[in-house]
Every structure is written in C-alpha cells, then in structure tokens.
Write a structure and sequence with these properties.
- There is one protein chain.
- By secondary structure, this protein is an alpha/beta fold.
- The protein has two domains: 5-157, no CATH class; 162-430, Purple Acid Phosphatase, chain A, domain 2, CATH 3.60.21.
- The chain has helices at residues 5-31, 37-60, 70-111, 114-131, 135-156, 199-211, 235-238, 272-287, 327-331, 348-357; strands at 165-171, 183-188, 216-220, 247-250, 290-292, 296-302, 305-311, 340-343, 363-366, 376-378, 381-383, 395-399, 402-406, 424-430.
- It has a six-stranded mixed sheet. The chain has a six-stranded mixed sheet with strand order 6-7-8-9-13-12.
- Helix 3 (70-111) packs across helix 4 and helix 3 packs antiparallel against helix 5 (135-156).
- The radius of gyration is 27 Å and the shape is elongated.
Length: 431
C-alpha cells in the first residue's frame, strides 16, 4: 500500500524535527557540561519531554477534535511554535559556528601551511584569553539566549491579552459642521469572542470603553471567530456599551463563518447552517442595541446639521477574504452631506477603492490586522510583521484630505496573547 501525501509529509516533518532536537541537544549538553549532575538531569529530561509532546502532537494532530477545544488549541500552538522556533534560533547560531569552523578547516587543508594552522590556533587561544570564551562558546550561549528570550517573550505575552490600552487622538477637519465639533468617537474592532476565557477581564474592558464617555461608538467587524454561539456568554457584557448618538457596527471576514467546517457543506461550499449562523449573528448585534450597517448609511443630525455614517460588508484586496462590500449602495443619498465616516473592516479597502473612487470619504475606520499581536511600538519607531503584509496596519494614515485609522483590535485570535501591540480602545475627537 502506498503512503498518502499527508503521511509522507508527516514522516518528513518528524525526521526534520528529530534532527533538530538532536542537533540542539548536543549543544545543550555541551553548554551544561560543568553543571551539577542533578540539574543536568532535570534540564535534559524536561527538554526531551517537551520535545516528545510536540512530536506526538504532530503525528496525532489530525486525530484531535480541535473544534471542541479551540482555546486549548490556541495555547498548545503557542507552546509548540515558541518551543520549536526557539530551537530553530539556537540551531541557526550553531550552524553559523559550524560553518565558520568548516571554512577554517578548508583554509587549513587547501593552503597546507603549518603557519596558518598555528595562527588559527593562536587566534582561538587569544579569543579565550581576551574575551573569556571562544567564538564557539560565545555563539553557543548567544543562540540559547536568543531562543530563550523569544520563547519567554511569547509566553509573557499571554498575560497581555486583556491589557486594554486607550489611544486618543484629535482630528481637525475644516469641513466638519460646527455642531459636531468636539464629537467624541470610540472605535473598537476585532472582538473575537470565541477566544475569550476570562469574562471578568472582558467586563473591565467594556467598563473602560464606557469610562471614555463617548458620544458615538463604532465597531469595525469580527465579533466572533466563526460561530454566533461564541457570543452566548458575552452578549450581556457587550450590550452594556452605549452612547448618546448610538452604537454602530459592521461585519468582518470572520463573521461569515467561512473558516468553520460546517457539516452540511455541499460541493459549492454552500451551507444552510452557515447561512443561519450569519442571520443569528446579525440578530445579536440588534439584541445588544448595535445598529449593523450592511452596505448602507445613517445620517446623523445635530442642531440642524448633518454628517453621514457609512458601513459596508467586508471588502478586501486579498482574494482569500470576502469582497461583499457595496460602496455604491452605502454611499447612496450622502453626496450632499458635508462630512462622511466609513466603517470598513479591512484596511486594504482604502487603497483598493476608497481613495480613488470616493475622495469625499473624510475618515475611514478599519481593523482586521491586530497589528499581528506582535511588534514594537515606542516613540518614533513602530514595527510589526504585519507591515510586510499590509501597507496600513495600525494607527493613523493620511493621503491628501483623507484619513484612515486602523484599530489594533480589542480581542485576539490564534496566539492568545499580545507582545508589544496591546489590545486597543480608540478615542477620536473631531475638531
């Protein structure tokens, strides 16, 4: 019987992982050569136990009903990724050192000069004398330091997933009607309720939203990961969000249930259960008092003056995500309104359509990227892997008279943590 492609892939991955484990363990044994025997035994045992857990999960991953244990899956993947990637970092440093020594060996053999060998040996001895350790030892320790720091950082990030951060900004617009000067908007995005495991922490986040005393609250999509039932235990939390001018929302790519294996899928990936799930989710928005904008608009009035609030379904330049947004329908009837705000989940919509076709959209609010939940944000410097995927991935962007703000997300998905890019509550004051 021929092995299927999945089995062959698994066997190949296991062989690679075993080779990586052995390569790193050899270095670990060298690093701990002078440690107490009991400590060495504990460290070596822990190393192989953790490696065995990762290895076993690779072999049996497809047999585990992860749909029933989505949160456990997220924590497992965090451990497996951080442990395996840390070993890769160690292996990279070891490979550099092995490559360095191989080059030196080749130079000695090719030139066959005793003086060269003596010089190399003297240089190594000099390194040990002047630097306190050989280059090999330095690279070995550096590899474990980098790998350990990476793993520690990802594990530490687990404690940040409910560490809500309020970001405030003032945006001046000459065409904003005077009655709306000082309007305070709170934007939240990407709740992903199916990832939560601490209801009290989420409640504190909602209380922080309300503490901003917003005039208007706007939600830019991804209320759930896949299914409407994820909101069963959180509807009574998010229905506490309110504002004098209302709470408005739109859909994100995850709200459509596209990533869940619905049991009644037909050959065209149509599912009655999936369609029902979306309708139920729409009802949840209404139940919480949120006005869901489905390719439509709402004219807000104050003291006889108007601004327009437009909301579209998900629209993305990436073919992997739905493009259901209908700007023509959402824009209808707003041409003569002097100021317009658009809710659109995916920030690629801004470059893909809004800037070129709708230049009178003053402010677009989006989410989707989460800032990859990993990065660095300090004064005058901002970095995340998200920037290699999205041109606009977090914060404020401006082109001419138009502005886009990308919220970093209230919740989390996949990795159940945040490193550097904290969950965000955005407060925008229009002036």
């Amino acid at each position: 019987m021929r092995a299927g492609p999945n089995l062959l892939s698994t066997i190949l991955l296991v062989i690679i992982m075993l080779a990586l484990d052995a390569y790193v363990f050899y270095a670990l044994r060298s690093l701990m050569a002078n440690a107490a025997p009991r400590l060495r035994g504990v460290v070596f045992s822990l190393y192989w136990v953790l490696s065995a857990i990762v290895m076993a999960s690779i072999v049996f991953y497809g047999k585990i009903p992860w749909a029933k244990f989505m949160q456990a899956r997220a924590y497992y993947l965090t451990f497996a990724f951080s442990f395996s990637f840390s070993k890769l970092m160690v292996a990279l440093f070891l490979f550099i050192d092995d490559g360095r020594r191989a080059v030196m060996w080749v130079v000695e053999k090719v030139r066959s000069a005793p003086a060269v060998a003596a010089a190399v040996q003297a240089r190594e001895e000099g390194n040990r004398e002047t630097e306190g350790m050989s280059r090999s030892r330095f690279l070995l320790k550096s590899g474990f330091l980098v790998g350990g720091t990476l793993m520690g950082t990802l594990l530490y990030g687990l404690s940040n997933k409910y560490n809500y951060h309020v970001r405030k900004l003032r945006l001046a617009y000459p065409n904003l009607p005077s009655a709306f000067k000082g309007l305070k908007i709170v934007q939240i995005s990407d709740i992903h309720s199916g990832s939560f495991n601490d209801k009290e922490a989420v409640k504190r986040g909602v209380e922080l939203i309300q503490a901003q005393k917003p005039d208007l609250v706007l939600f830019t999509g991804d209320l759930v990961n896949d299914r409407s039932l994820e909101m069963d235990d959180y509807t009574d939390v998010f229905d506490k969000i309110n504002a004098p001018m209302g709470v408005f929302s739109t859909l994100g790519n995850h709200d459509y249930g596209d990533y869940y294996p619905w049991p009644d899928y037909d050959n065209n990936r149509r599912s009655r259960l999936k369609a029902q799930n979306l309708e139920t989710l729409k009802g949840i928005h209404a139940k919480m008092g949120w006005r869901l904008l489905m390719n439509e608009n709402k004219i807000l009035e104050k003291d006889g003056q108007q601004i327009a609030l437009l909301g579209v379904e998900n629209w993305s330049m990436n073919p992997r995500f739905p493009r259901l947004g209908d700007m023509k329908a959402a824009y209808e009837g707003t041409k003569d309104v002097p100021f317009k705000i658009l809710l659109s989940h995916d920030p690629t919509h801004w470059d893909g359509q809004i800037r070129n076709e709708y230049p009178d959209i003053d402010l677009m609010l989006a989410g989707h990227t989460h800032g990859m939940q990993f990065g660095v944000e300090i004064p005058f410097f901002k970095w995340s892997p998200a920037q290699y995927i999205y041109r606009q991935w977090a914060g404020l962007y401006e082109e001419g008279k138009q502005r886009l703000y990308v919220n970093r997300g209230f919740g989390f998905l996949g990795y159940p943590g945040r490193v550097g890019i904290l969950p965000e509550i955005t407060v925008i004051e229009l002036v």
